[in-house]
## 1
Amino acid sequence: MVGELKSGAPLLRLRGVRKAFGNAQALRAADLEIAPGEVHALVGENGAGKSTLMSILGGSLSPDSGEMEFLGAPFRPVHPREAGNLGVSLVHQELALAPDLDVEANICLGREKSRLGFVLPQTARVREVLSWLGYGRLDPKARVGDLGVAERQIVEIARALFHDARLILMDEPTSSLPAADAESLFAMIARLKARGVSVVYISHFLEEVARVADRITVLRDGETVAAGLPAETPVRDILAAMVGRPVAEIFPSSPRNIGDTLLDVRAWVCGTGAAPASFSLRRGQILGLAGLVGSGRSSLLRSLAGLRPHSSGQAIWAKTAETMADSQGRARAEPGKRIGFLSEDRKEEGLALNLSVRANAALADLNRFRGPAGLLRLGAEAEAVRAVCAKLRVRYRHLDQPVGALSGGNQQKVALSRLLLGDSEVWLLDEPTRGVDVGAKAEIYALVSRAAAEGKAVLWAGSHLPELFGMCDSLAVMHRGNMSPVKPVGLWSESEVMAWATSGSGGKA
Amino acid sequence: MRAKLRGLVPYLGLAGSFLLFTALGPAAFHGAYNLKTILTQSVIVGVGAMGMTFVIISGGIDLSVGSLIAFATVAMARILNLYGEAVPVWLPWAAGAGAVAVGALGGLCNGFLSARLRIVPFIVTLGTMQIFRGGAKWLAHEQTVTAPATWLNGLMEVDPAPAWLWLAPGVWVLLLLAAAVSVILRYTVFGRHVYALGSNEATARLCGVPVVRRRLLIYMLGGALAGLAGVLQFANLTLGDPTAAEGMELDIIAAVVIGGGSLRGGQGRAAGSLLGALLMAVLRNGCNMAGIPNYLQNIVVGAIIIGAMGLDRLGSKP
């Protein structure tokens, strides 16, 4: 099944691969060469054709033309199963597992060994693969739906190894991982490499790419614009290749005047075991909230937005001295009126993907468009949505286009447009640039900092430190529900933030 | 923890409603004869629920089973009438096989329309529910079809012909079937794929599970077991009735869901569905025995279905 390779020959070689969807040319000239046992990063903006290329390699799409060779033989899988049998496995961005099945069943799915239709257990081999990956503690009989994101990813990688993959394609593997788990993923990639398995690594985090990859290939508009760059290539040059122009300054340095306190949060406790947090949100200020996934960042934002109860504490509107909490101890956020919340989970919660751009944007504040007899004034609605989309530079074809058809960056802008349409004073942003490409990230940075300059108070929760340092005025770090003191970003160092995030204290101090 | 609690729901529901009617109803309710009667009354819904278990775990739904059951009874009656009064020995077998085949064929239609043509199963089977019912009426010339008496009529006798059987043959059929379904779901590749399809169809496709073929088989199996339920329905009625089992699909679906089946797919168990069917029988029988007027019966049955599910909800509050 798996052939052997002459020394020095590439494991995989693509030349001039083309693929069109209708009129859209997703790939026009994609080249890629992967050596055995190499970690090769594939970078590019969203829409550059990375995912299309991955789908072609993984066998779920067929190219229109171009040469593809794997292990020295022509390679043109017509089904994911065929690619898998040849030794190419895809670890998906949206983890592709059946949550109701156990670990072993997921690993064997579609290729179960059986006699007379009865499944032969593979528990021993599954356990062997898991422990080789350093996850021997993962029970093959555990239900996948009960596992965390990181463990699910292990299951996917184990699935690839279990079927003797020579090349593993990882699409944004760290996008949903907390930093500590990302570290163990990197360690795992190193072991795969030592075993002679090649990895194609797609990521938006260029710092990460520089650490993990041996070489880097850059795609732009369906074309390979730089092939096999060494990992030492400066991030600036990679960015320039990705966007096709030199990138001067990705974080806007708009001068902001920090004004009055808008919302005073006092001794706020959400969740058990959390210490009370006190801070204030001020006009013109972007307050960053760092911390690992699961550190309580999201819970804090969600409780402030009234999406989950908090156990004690008050949030007080400074101007009117009115508290946000009603008698039941649940925050009354009046969504869209004064507090705007951006969900970290755009697909599941943030947007209704099959609804139109117009419906999604206007959803935050439909009352505004209510006319006589309670009917919606569709004209006014369209006008308002169009205006806000223009302001955010959302690229869409028409207002009634389903929002799911837009790219990730544009989807996120539609989600953000709600905060603008709803006239929110306080913006609670949970991972606002997740799954968004470099170009759109820059636009979101500019947009948020403009909003702050116009007097909004922004609370920005995120994991990506350069982003938090670039965007925020002040920063606090969460660890297991406890919040560090708020300090201006200038007084934080990255290592201090990491120390707080991982141990809940200031490290050396 | 949560899953464990969910697994208890059918047991608690069954025990609860049994105790309720023991308290409310006459002593005869919990007499041995009535218990055997309840078991017998659960058979038709139970057999249908076994097929529905596959369909629901795979993330589908089949509203046409009630109509298929009726169709099967009519088909059986027609086959039994082929040789007039002199019924050959093999004819009852052929009639039974015919009923199962009719069901399988109907299921295949459902599977083809939903899996191959990708029409939502709810809509497909909402349509075929009407079509199969119409087909049954056509085959029966819009009236019940009498048939010569054969051993088939004894399948649902509470006191069966060879007394050592102790329970109606239909009950044994159901129990054996439930055991088989349980084994298939748990230990076969096909069973794995049923869960995988309902849990995440995209993943299943990606991993090389032949999605369309599996769905065809699942609906066919569901239909075939509806056909088998039709055989038992025929035994109950001793004739073919195109208006039989009207609305029974809802009892069947309720049985599966009470038994732990998830309408979103990926979850469900044969034993649970069996208990669910039993619960439905206890409810109907208990209401009758307790002399609860018909209108109240409907209300009680409905309330208990919701209550059983609410029990699950209450336990799983975060």
## 2
Amino acid sequence: MQVAATRIGGDVKKRIEMSGISKAFGGSVALKNVSFELLEGSVHALMGENGAGKSTLMKILAGVHQPDSGEIFRDGRAVTFATPKEALDFGISTVFQELSLLANLTIAENMFLGREPTLRFGTVDYTTMNRETTKALAELGLDLDPKTMVSELTIAERQFVEIAHGIKADASIFILDEPTAALNAADVEVLNRHIRRLRDEGKAIVYISHRMDEIFEICDMVTVLKDSELVATKPLAEMTPHSLIAMMVGRELKDLFPERNAEPGEPMLDVENFRISASSEPFSMTVGKGEIVGMAGLEGQGQQRFLRSLVGQFEPFGGKVSVRGKALKFPVSKDGGIRYLQSLGVGLVPEDRKEEGLFLTLSIGHNIAMGLHSRKSEFSLADGYGEKIRETMASMSVQASGPAELVSALSGGNQQKVLLGRYLAAGMSILLVEEPTRGVDIGAKSEIYRLLRDFANKGGAVVVLSRETIELIGLCDRLYVVHDDTIVSEMAAENATEHNILDAALSRQASQVRLETTP
Amino acid sequence: MAALFNRTNFNRISRIPPAYFVFAVLLIVLWIARPHMLNINIMGIFIRQVVPLGILVLGQMLVIRVNSIDLSGAGVLLLINFYISSSMFPGASLPFFVAISLATGLAVGLFNGYMVGKRRVSAVIVTLAVNIVLVGIVQFLASGKPPGDVPSIFSDIYNTKLWLIPTPVLFWVALALIMSLFLSRFVYGRYVSSVGANPVAALFSGVPVERTVIVAHTIAGLMTALASLVQTASIAVGSVRVGHELPILAVAATILGGVVFGRGEGGVWGPFFGVLSFALLFVVMTTFGIGESGKLITQGLIILLAAIFYGLRTAKSRT
Amino acid sequence: MNRTMKRLLTGKDSRQGRWFFALLIALAIIVWLGLTTERFLTSENLFNLVAQAMPLIITAIGMMLVVLVGGLDLSVGSVISFTTAILALGAPALISIPGVFALAACIGLINGLAVTRLNVHPIIATLSMQFIVLGITRILRPVSGGDVPQIVIDAVAGSFYGIPLPVFWGIVTVLIAWKIIHGSRFGLHLFAIGGGIASGTDEATHNFGVADKQKILLAYVGCSCFAALAGIFLAGRIVSGDPNVGLLFEMDAITAVAIGGTQLSGGVGSLHGTVIGALVMALLANGMNSANISAFVQTAIKGVILLLVVGLQSRKKMGL
């Protein structure tokens, strides 16, 4: 009970202090003068919408990025981490949001990568590695062979290995960046037990998650970031879920989202008995004219795979899809699929605008006009589309010196608008949008919501994927809850809450075995 | 003075293809060392020598812009040279040779494109392997000896002039003009820029990425065929050794001209001046008595330095 | 058992790749040659075959180091010729042998620096190095000739109880290579870095605290040094320096590596696969020679094999 004494007593030591941190990537600012401190024996929630700067702040603490200005202090002394290794040696261990395990290594090799124990003559000590790994996994309730290749694991298993890797380290500060995104409720409870144990040992833990109930269950303090800036740091006891959301969003939620549409028109996209893979259950869905439909649920449950199967990036197992009454010809080819769907008026706005969406080294004009160019054959004369580009930029209020400016110089919000603008300018009638507002400031966010709603009101149909359940609830007319590669529930967005979406997703799973280890 | 070296000025200057600077410097060197060489007749002859390289560069530039490379040119050149100089097609006419050469270039280009674009095989390996296969076949057919003479009509055309300028040079300039117009006026040019800048984004904006790469390789194959015809006309005999350095010189000239993997800022004319720089470089090296080995080293250094120049620039713009 | 078989046959979920096919091919060629060629299956002939294959085995092992991290080294052929030229300068072995390794390490260092620090594509960096080194070699030794130290000649030509010495050197080299690739942290890190690069997350190993750039740099240095070792072998065999002896060696080495199941995109491969791959090449050459196939056609056939082997590998990236 000495632990409780430290926690209640006013004399709590600071583990680490980040002061006045700023960071920009190219033209876009990721952090503006943010300060953050961690107390020992506490679980500190870091909150903010996608792109608010949480991950960047933590990557600076983990030595992945270096701040442009600002300092990190330990016991009043400034420290710097030039590489992840330096931060690790200093005692900072991270579970990153992106799954960063190496698929061609075994679990044990991943667990010890970069600090493998060696025998004489520098031979890697596999016996120790495998033994320690089995132990670490067993503590998390996992019965996996440490010699299994990571490529053979399921997403949830990978996430657990990643957690095991992060919390096994002999560190004093633990950063858990969305560790539960792919986990179900029972697994989350296992993780929470370990977080409490670390806390009771006097470690400091940073916890990033989108799930409110988890935050309130496990955390003591909360720091909220918005648009790359610090909003406040407060004890969680003083907060309610409602006030926390208001702090994150910065305004009343209902002001952020445009009015919903009253009545959907005739079906634009019709999916019947669709099966994502051979082992998944078939499902059907429909999207009507003027409607915005969201695909909700835990991360990586097949939402993206479904959308991308429609444009030929994955081969679905079976089903029938019709666009405005016209049946799609399956299999859709991988190279020509997007072209084919675009010719039917269906555009897919990809999630990762830097890697998959934009031509960063080319001009705004080129980026917008590509949607129009690609509707033509390569041996036809190219139109300049000057008028169209200017029109699009104006209607989306893209802030730039002109169409010739390079996209890489724009802020995240303007980049996202350029990306969306490409598909709007190309005259699509159905938009499949992945993460419409990732890494975008609040002003641009509400503009993008308005643009999507306008598009729907003019007779378009929209399917949206998002990790931000609040965004789905606020923006959409109707939600489908996706779990295990199939749709498990449908609800009106008006009546949806984060809680009942999670319930709907997990209710089907309760009867299933938690983690299957057999291949 | 300080303002000259600030970041934006550096960026602006670094955007100009190095070929223009190199060309200017070599021109000055030549003007100082051998001023009498700078007249239209002598320069015409020098430039005529690099016309095959110049035509090859038009194709190389295209494949490099879509993140690929074509190193199979030497094999195609040997094969076409063999068609014309051996007794394989006795008494065949000029149009026949042109047709069969273009067909060969087309076939090799299509194959390269298919392997690179559809099968996703490394372009270096595909095109080098194709090169080995073609060279092996030609040497086998010729039993390692030079095949014979080239019909005189080739050298007759090669030696003509139009308004004081050698015809091959005009042919090259015309091809460059066509390529330049094709890339700037047709949708294909937009596809090429997009695939080069970001192939994934190109796919998601509806560009037929694989087809774009295949077409680029096919055009490169056709350019190689044209370059081979000019080269064969210039040496006027059959050979089993000619031109093995041409593809790599074409890569060097392209990079020098401001076209690097995935980036086409130098357009068609940057690499064009890259080739002209090489024309002058050969003259300068010959006048200063630098032999074949020295030329090899210089070529290697030029590619490496130009690649480092662009490597550092992209590294800078990324962080 | 079932899983092990599946791994062997498909190379899926295995870090060693499809080396098993190479073994089957090697055995098939041995059976074919044993049936069709007289005196093929004598120990003398088989030892000679291995001795013949030594330079390629060694070069291929070096090549594998850079292929594991998703690179390629096109300068090894030039490094081999360069090594023979240096050895043939007539300097005493005590100076020239450490000398060629030092020079090769320098070449590898420049390749590695260009790739890791100056952001140059491996193919471009090593291709230009190929030209630079070849140029220097031709200045040193325009045509074949010169005096190779006697100790090098003896080490390659001699035999011990009827077993050619190169076989012993080969065993030593393979043991050292095994230690580097499969028995050290360095080797494991090469696999890890390559795995990250192949899946498009170049930063992954760096985030784990692995000094990735330094390891890639060392892979290039290692590759050049193995090439130099192959060059010493060849110098001993041809008893002269030759600017053309290494010609196209890089292609043979890449083919051997690819036959052995190493993925050119990185992260998957094995030493035994590479050795078997090089032996397959040697067996093929042996078979084609005994079938009196012209050297030119042999080159063409090798090119076709390279196309087939690499064409069968799948990768995500398009282009270079």
